[in-house]
Amino acid sequence: MQRTSFSHFKCPAARALESVGDWWSILILRDAFQGLSRFDEFQKSLGVAPNILTRRLKHLTDEGLFERRLYQERPARYEYVLTEKGRDFFPVLMALFSWGSRHIPQEDLAFLLSDAASGNTRETILVDARTGDEITPENTSLLAGPAADDEVRERIARMRAWYLGNDA
To answer: Quick one: which H or E segment has residue 72?
Structure first.
């Protein structure tokens, strides 16, 4: 089945999904944040078919989330190193991890988040970098960006009216 491309969507979330690709890519990125960098390490961790892993690593490299680096010349072997764009995915992964931790049975949790230095468990929230305020559906809305057209502006107006309890 042909996957739909989101590359022409105006929404940053849709465009981000285009960059990441699919669930395999998210799990590959998860493993990279856990120190894995080589094809065989990813394959062993994920149990994914080699052809799927090859496609996902190529996509993540083409999208700029990984840089492919030669670590052995004969035979040529490469490792996949997170780029700045790839490292910027960390908060997304932590949000997904935290959401999953809250919504699966506690007895099924094999991993918890902790402070690297102290070992104390962490609980995540999304905060505004400027104010430190927690970002919630109740206190957050959209603004029109530079590429917004009339359709986008109307959608934003409907959303704001809905949040304020007004008819749009």
So the answer is: strand 66-72
